[in-house]
Every structure is written in C-alpha cells, then in structure tokens.
Fold each of these.
Amino acid sequence: MHLPSRRAGVRLTLLYGALLVASGAVLLALTYLLVARFPADRVLVDGVEAGGGAGVDAGTGRSGGGFPGVRPAARSGDVFAQLQEQAVGQHTDQLRQLLVQSGVALAVMLVVSAVLGGLAARRVLRPLRAMTGTVRHISAHTLHERLAVQGPADELKELADTVDGLLGRLEAAIDSHRRFVAHAAHALHTPLLLERALLRKTLIDRDATAETFRGSTERLLEISERQARLLESLLALAGSHRGLVHREELDLARLAEWALHVARPESERRGLRVTAATGPAPVLGDPALIQRLVCCLVDNAVGHNRPGGRVDLTTAVRDGHAVVSVANTGDRVAPDQVDRLFAPFRGPGRSIGDGHPGLGLAVVHAIALAHEAVISARARPDGGLSVEVAFPIRTGDPRKGADDIGQLDKNAGFH
C-alpha cells in the first residue's frame, strides 16, 4: 500500500485507520448478507412455519387468530398470499434501514479509527523517536555513548542493540583512523626535518667540498627513497580498503621470484641466505596489490632479520588454497604480540629512521582482507616470524596476466 505522506506517523495512522474501517465494513457487510439471506416469505401459522403455501392446514384453512389486514372470510390461499406479501415488504424495509444504519455506523467508525490509529501510531513510534533523539545527540566527540535500551527482547530492542554495535565499531574505526593519521603525519614529517637539516648544514658550511655535497646528496636520496616507500605503502593500504576494481589471473610463484629479485641487493648486503621453493599457485586478484603484498612479506623478512640470517619463501597449492609463505630469522617475538605486528605503526622494533615505519604487515593484512585471503602468523622459537597467506584458489592459466612481469611492475609503481 503506497501512501503519499512521508511521515511515518501519518502513514501508520492512515494504515491503522484503514484497517479498522475495512474490518468494520467487512463486519457490516457480513451482517447485511446474513440478514438478506433470511427467507422473507416465511410466516408462522398455528405454531408451524410455512412459506409459499407449504404446510397449510387444508381441513380448516384458518389463520389461527386475527392477522391485521386479513378478512375472516378470506380463503386460506388469499390469507397466506397477503401474509407473504406483507412479510416481504417488512423484510425489504428492514434491509433498507439496516443499510442506512450501517452507513452511519461506518462513518462513526471512520472517525474512531482515525483517533485510535493516531494513538496506536504514536505509541509504536515513541521508542523510535527516543532512539532517534539519542542517536542525533551522539556526535564524533561522544561516540562512547550508547542507546542501552532496556526491556523485552523484541524487534525494537534488537534494533537498539544493532545501533549500539554499529556505534561501537564506528568509534573504534574513528579512533584507529585518528591514530593512523597521526602516525602517518609523524612518519612523513620526520624525513622532511632530516632533509631540511641536511640542506641547511650544507648551505651554512663554508668549507664544504664536492665530496661533502656528494655525501649530503646521497643521504637526501636515501631519505627520499624511504619517503617513496612509505607513500607507496600508504597508497596500497588506502587502495585495498576501497575494494577490488580490477582482477587478473596471476601466479604467486612469478610474483615471489620478482620480489626476491628486488630484495636481492639488500639481502646480499646483510649477508642473508635466501631459499625459495616456488610452485605454481594461481590466484585471481588485483595485480598491483598482490605484488605489493608479496614484496611487503619479503621486505619485512629481509629488513627485520639478523646479519647472516635466513629467509625461506614458498609458494604452493594446499587444501584448495594458493599459499605464499615467508619465514625469517631475527629477534624473538612474544606469541601474544604477533597480532600487533599487523596494525599500522604498531609493530615492535619499527622506527622511522631505519626505513621501516611498521606499515608492511598492515598492508599485507589489508590486501589479504580485500582478496578474502586468510593470514596465519606465528613466532619462531629461535627468533623471527613465519607468515602465511592463503588465497582462494582459482582455476585457469596461472601464467595469464603475469607473462610480462616488467609491465606488471610498472603498473604497480615499483622502482
């Protein structure tokens, strides 16, 4: 039933009123039909009901006691004909009166229905108005407040509990966003201060030589590369939260080999032993994001390792999932602190100065979530971390979409 009014109270009033009026109209119609179906030509003669001439005492033919308008000498057929005619007229008149009175009762019922409908609508909407006022009162500075509706476990209580849950998640999301923005601003501000200090030192040094300028330039280039990596991580993190727009068939093995190739200079500088067992692992997803995920895993394993340590990388298909697993040696991590490593800027041992501000595993978590992948991480007993990401396996050619790894790297924005 489509009603033109936009206010719920008016709509409910009209709905309740229409239902009451319709119910009254149906009741009156049924009453009228029942009365109308009663035979109008039946009369009672000497305690016997008769109609249409049936049941007449042929022996006497008497009417059994004075009927108005009936002549005593009239024959029995004329008597009953007159009685039937009179009964039909009375029945018709009664139906007409019943119809008129029913119309009056229906008009009265219309007014009563409007009043009762308004009261019922107001009663039904009262808890909703209270919840609406409370939700309007809650702002970005008072998200800790809740509706906290008390009462029976009905639909309104369920709605209030759902809104409370939504407010709780919104508060947590806003707090996380504020912390993330603060940490990101700090991460971007610190390199700018270092660059400014280096430039100022070079300018005010009157005895600066070409070698001094070269050293300062190399230092500025290193800081700029760290900023670029940070911005790439932030962009990947933001892109993963927007959801997947572009999907291609990829092979985790090809991406893992490329990630190891990119990290080879740093791993050789640290004297790390890198072992790779890359079996075909087809997935369907965003090429740039998945490549960023694999590179973040490798970069985290190399950057948070001890000199002369080890990095083990594996890609395979297992239990219906395409799996990429990276394990490394390094400092010991408490098992209860593993989950903290996947929060932005929360990982222990992260710092801005070493070029690892703690976004790598946060990016991995966000990209995996966007691809409906499952992450499992555990602290190694001898130090370091083992991280495994399992993607839902996709059928098809695993080489499709990754034949030109250089083009993929260009699209992902890696240098």
Amino acid sequence: MNHLVAPSVLAADFANLQRDIEMIDRSSAEWVHCDIMDGRFVPNISFGLPVLKAMKKHTQKPLDVHLMIVQPDQYIQHFKDAGADHLTVHAEACTHLDRTLHAIREAGMKAGIALNPHTPVQSIKHVLHLADIVLLMSVNPGFGGQSFIPYVLDKVAELKGMILEQGTSTLIEIDGGVNLDTGMQLLKAGADVLVAGSFVFKSADPIATIASLKALDPTQAAV
C-alpha cells in the first residue's frame, strides 16, 4: 500500500487551531495526529479532551491520538467520546498492555502501541497481533522540533520483519524529526505512516509540504 501522512497538530498555531485543522482536511494527508501530554510521563503538557472534541468538529479525517500519559487505561472511553479514531498508548506506561489493547478495541477504536527510542521492538512480540498500529518514536517524546535518531531505522526494519513473520496487518508509524530525507529512509526501511509536525507547520506552504511527503517513493530512491 502507499504510505500515509499524519501532520502533528502539536506544531500547529494553537491560536488558529481551527484554521490549521481545516488546512489538514483540505490536504492530501490521511490522518490528523494528536499528541496528548500530561507533564508526568513526559516533561511537557500539550492539550486534552476539550480541545480534541473541538478539533473533531472541523475535520473529516481520522483523529490519530497518541497518549503520552501515565495510567492511560483510565481515559480510554473518554478519548473515544471526544472523537478519537485511533488510540495509541506507550508500552512503557502500561502495566497490562494486553488488557489495554483489548479495551481500546472494545471501545471501537484502532489500537496502537508506542515505543520510546530505547525500547526494543521484541518487547511487544506477543501482543503485536492486537495492535493496528505500532508507533516508533524517532525522538525522545515530550517536545516538538527535535532531531531524528538514526538507530530507529534499524528498529523499523526489525519490526517490519516481525510483522511479516506473524502475518499481521499492523502499520508502522514514525513520529519525530520527519522530513523528506528521513522520510525516504524510513519508507525504505519499512515504515507505513509518517508523522510530521514542525516540517509541515513551519513551512511556507504546508499543503505543498504534505504533498511532497506523500510523493516520496522509496522504489525510486537512489541506492
């Protein structure tokens, strides 16, 4: 399948959030990526349920919600009610990840597992079949605008091998430092979904920048 693009509203202009959400809706991006931070699992605070609910009114595209919070199990139904279509939780934040993934699916959302850069992909081998998405962080979570961590490319390739071996339809999503150069490398390694924040929203023409990410073709990349 062709890869997907999910602009991250963490890098949007929060004073003009409706404008930026509607821009994503007009673009060739498939998902709207929403980073929820609690100031505990990560050292920053972003936004919560009321903002997510307001955003849902201004897009026809799925809200791809990435929880960077402690005790995410407490909020599964709340995020469903606020409009989340996908709910991704950090393996590092879930004592009972199997149970959490089942609960997300039972609530009617696609279930995702996020892994910090240092967390090995083998740690989720036995629950991979429960994940619609695995989000590999290619920066340390908590802040936008960070530089890409190159060893994540090896994790992408390893995870793609696990998915093929198990025969699941899990999508590999990447968040952190994505641009045209790193995006091409990630797609060649086996990524399916590119999350881009600063690269999109700090560009002169965000819709054109999204289109350029969509146009990346790893089959045409120089060897």
Amino acid sequence: MRALRGIILAGGRSSRLGGRHKPAIRIGGEPMVARAVAATQAAGAEVCVVGEPDGVPAGVPVLREDPAYGGPLAAVAAGMDAFEPRAHGVVLLIGGDMPFLTPTDLASLAAAAPGGVALAVDAEGRAQPLCAAWDEAVLRARLSAIGDPANRPLRILLDGLEGDGITPILTLLPERELLDVDTPEDLRSAQSPGS
C-alpha cells in the first residue's frame, strides 16, 4: 500500500490582499488552511503545513521554508525534508488558500500519480501545480536535480518531465473546487452565500 502525504503551503506574503495572511481567513466559519488540512486528512494523507501557524489545527506539524518567504518551491523542499523517504509513496501539494477542495478530489489525484505526477485542471485546461499529486520518488528526484530551491519558481518542478519519460496526467476538477484566493475579488467569491 502506498503512503500518502500532504504538504500544504501557507507561507506567502499575500501581497494582493494587503499582506493579510490568506490561509487564516475564514470561509464558512473555518480558516482556509484548516479546510485544506481537513480535506487532505480525509483523503487519507499524513499532513504537514509549511508557512505560518495561524489557522492551522492543533496537532498538525508546521514548518518554515528556508529562507522564510523563499517561495513555494522552497516550501515543498522543506515539507519533503520533514518526511522520511518511502519507496512507494504519493505526495499531495496543496495551496493553503484553496478552501473548496474535497477529499474525493485529492483521492482522485493521488490515484493517478504513481509513477509520475497528476495535476488538477479546470474546464479551460489551466493546470494547478498547487493542486497536484506526485509519486514520491519522482518528486524527490526532481528536487535533488534542482538543487537550492530558494526563490525559484515552482513550475521548474515540471520543466523537462517529458524528457524524463513522464507525462503529467491532467485531472479535471470543478472550477469552484479549484478556487484559490489571491485577490479581494476571489475572497468575495469564496465568502459568498453557499460557500
């Protein structure tokens, strides 16, 4: 049986929301990061959060990337360093500002990832690298090949994958479930009735 881990990224500066720590903002009465943790745990994953502890449920490990605010790639590397390597594992990479992901969404991604990577996409074909599942060995190899992850873009994890014989599997998810809260408009949409 494959081990399932989840790394939830919650360490950005939230500059488009005036520096307000996005993952701690409440949606439906619960911090966004807590919603992401709950969905990831319900999908069967062992979870850690990389970033700020605000809004993170008690008992969930919180780490910091090095340097702080070193970007999402550095956060992924920090999360992977926190987990003992497993030969047969899958790792979910989830944005802490995605309040509507479901355990079913994450289980679908995880089921598609062994041997490679599965990325969530919306109906327009836009991929979400922070709603993805990676074969653990593939992710560790990519991070090792990249070297120092500080202040480097997350997308370089995906660069050259096909040259390594890995074609990302695209998993269609509903647009609402893929909403990531980046702007005041996104926040108004997330907090609208029925959220």
